[in-house]
Structures are given as C-alpha cells and as structure tokens.
Design goal:
The protein is mainly alpha-helical and 382 residues long. It has 14 helices and eight strands. A two-stranded antiparallel ribbon has the order 1-2. It has a two-stranded antiparallel ribbon with strand order 3-4. Strands 5-6 form a two-stranded antiparallel sheet.
C-alpha cells in the first residue's frame, strides 16, 4: 500500500540521517573528549564565515567533521602498483554497507499511529486510517540474529582489504581482524543467550517492550538489571568487534602503519573510518535496546506513564513519539561517549594478550553466566 511505502521511506530516511549525523558528530566527540582528558583545548580551528562579514562560526570545533569529509573527497585516490582491482574497490563498501543495514532491525521508538499524529490535517489523517507502525524499518522475528549476521559480514570487507592491497602489513592486519572477530563474536553470542532465555524471543522490538515494566515495584525491568554481568561482557566484546583501543590490533598504527587499510587513501579510507564511528553508534543502539530499556523510560508505555499503584498519567501520541525518539538518541549518545572514554583510557593489549583475554577469561565467564541464568530461569518456571 502507498501509505506503508511513505511511512517506511520516512523511517529509512530518518535512520540514514541519524547514522550519518552520529558518524560525523562522534568524530568531534572523540577529539574534544580526548582533549579534555589530556587537558588540551582540542579541535577548534575549522570554522564557517558568514558571507560578506568577518564573523567566524567556530562552534567548539563542530565543523571539523565537515572539513574532514571535504578533505577525503578532494584528496587523490592513490592506489598501490600491484593489487586486485575488484576486491580493492569492493572492500570499503563491504565494511560500510552492513553497518548501515544492521540498524534496520533496531527499534528506535514505540508504535506510530499516523492518524493521531496528523489530527490537524484531516485529509492525511483519513488517508492513513487506523494503520499503526512499529518504529523499526524491518520488523523481523529474528532481529537479533540479523544483527549478528550483518556484523559478521563486515569482516569480509576487512579481509578483502588486507588481501587485495598486496601489502604484508595490510595482510597481517586482516588476519588479526579475522581471528579477533571469531573470538569476540562467540562471547557476544553467549552473553545475549541469557537475555533470550529471560525474554523468550530474539525479536528486538519485543525485548524492548518487555523492558518497559518494573521489578520489585520500583526497579526498571531493564536487561542490565536482570543481566548486569552479561551487559559488561557484551559491551567489552562489542568494542573488540569494532577494533577500537584497547582492541585495535588489526590497525595498530605503531606496528602495522594502519593495518588492513594501509594502502587506502581519499574517500575509500574515509569509508573505513566512517564505518568505525557509525558502528560505535550501532553498538550503542544495540546495547540500549538489549540492556537499557530501548526507547522507553521506566514506567513508560505507548499511552503514557503507569506509576506504582496503577496511577496512569496519559500523554498525547505526538508527545510520546517525540519522547521515545529523544530518549533513544540520548541513550545511544551516552553509550557512544562511554566507548570513546574507554578508547582514551586504556592502553592497547599485546596480540597474544588480546586472544588470551577472549578465550581464557571472557569465554569461561560468559559460559558461567549463561549456565547460572539457565538454572535460575528453569527454577522459576519449574
């Protein structure tokens, strides 16, 4: 139906805009946060001058992200002498595209009722009728599995980049990335199994909805309350999946120049870097959905707030939609900033330490957490 097409085009446009803005803004957050932690001023030189005046808009260095993008697009696209032309060109897109697609199954809001939202426009309201839409691009029952599938595809681009560049440093970075992905992807899978046992579904929208309640009358029924240990393991493994310090061994500038994308320049290198920052936002969005109640606040539903004692505080549909969108974005921004904080706090692992940390520390802990969760769930339902 045409109504469905319009709504989902709006959802797709919103999701792409949010991810691109996050990817740009997080480059600024990384610079400014690093500067604050190092007692420096940070990026503050890029500016936009108002035409025909001497007024320069600096805005705390926010324009540095735009300057970076322009620089990447205008730089020479240098290529090595010997390389695989097709794989070399495909690799950046094989990394960048799955990162965007992963957001398609993550719910960024509750249920949208266009007729209620457009009450001031009777013709449009009547056109939509009684249709309702979950604010999620692709409503699939196996949403969590789709996220892991797309997450696993990015490693193909990394391996292609390292192999096709015909550079020993790039190839070594690609091999490191492959073994690192296998190690930490397994840990991530084991940590979310505990949540699956508790919520009984892999549908991300259903998981978010089940976290809108309360525990013991006052605690939010968020995943981090039910599975605090799994939340720590999941976030650690997710940062390792994104190859960020202290897990950036596939790049390791002091060892491998730039790792798997050493031979890339201009916008091809920009795609690798942009994908890394967008993946920070994807990790934040996934962690928010699984462990922080998603788009809801405690006691909040699609109709308003249900306070202890069944006191209902109704809120208009438009206000609910705005609140849910804002809550989701704020949570994602907080989690993204925390990942950057970790990046500028901890030193890099040695490569053998990185793999030992995954297999001899995190993997046994994830198994123990899953075992305890399974026993508790069985005991409660016995």
């Amino acid at each position: 139906m045409m109504q469905d097409l319009v709504i989902y085009l709006v959802f797709i446009g919103y999701a792409v805009a949010v991810l691109l803005v996050f990817g740009t803004v997080l480059t600024w957050v990384e610079r400014k946060q690093a500067a604050i932690m190092s007692d420096r001023i940070g990026a503050n030189r890029a500016y936009v001058r108002i035409p025909f005046t001497q007024i320069k808009l600096v805005w705390l260095g926010l324009f540095h992200g735009l300057a970076d993008g322009i620089k990447m697009m205008l730089k020479e696209d240098w290529k090595p002498n010997s390389y695989d032309r097709f794989a070399y060109a495909l690799a950046p897109w094989a990394v960048f595209t799955p990162v965007l697609l992963a957001f398609a199954v993550i719910p960024f809001g509750g249920t949208l009722v266009p007729a209620k939202l457009l009450q001031g426009l009777p013709a449009l309201s009547a056109w939509f009728g009684d249709r309702t839409y979950p604010m999620q691009i692709a409503r699939v029952d196996a949403g969590l599995l789709v996220v892991f599938a797309f997450g696993g595809l990015t490693i193909i681009g990394t391996m292609l980049a390292g192999w096709s560049s015909d550079n020993k440093f790039s190839m070594l970075g690609a091999l490191r990335a492959g073994s690192q992905m296998i190690s930490y992807e397994l840990v991530m899978g084991l940590t979310v199994l505990g949540l699956i046992l508790i919520y009984g579904t892999v549908d991300l929208n259903a998981i978010a909805q089940q976290q809108s309640g309360v525990l013991l009358g006052f605690l939010p029924a968020w995943g981090i309350v039910l599975q605090p240990f799994a939340a720590i393991l999941f976030l650690t493994a997710a940062i390792a999946e994104n190859k960020r310090i202290p897990f950036d061994l596939p790049e390791a500038e002091s060892e491998l120049i730039a790792g798997y994308y050493t031979e890339y320049s201009a916008m091809k290198m920009g795609l690798f870097m942009f994908a890394e920052f967008i993946e920070i936002a994807i990790i934040g969005a996934l962690f928010t959905t699984l462990f922080l109640g998603g788009y809801n606040l405690p006691f909040m539903t699609d109709e308003g707030f249900v306070l202890p004692g069944n006191h209902v505080v109704p809120i208009g549909h438009a206000a609910i939609v705005v609140i849910q969108l804002a809550v989701f974005l704020v949570k994602v921004l907080v989690m993204s900033s925390f990942q950057i904080l970790v990046r500028w706090t901890l030193p890099r692992f040695r490569y053998d330490q990185l793999l030992r940390f995954a297999w001899k520390f995190m993997f046994p802990l994830a198994l123990a957490n899953l075992t305890v969760t399974a026993v508790v769930v069985w005991a409660l339902h016995a």
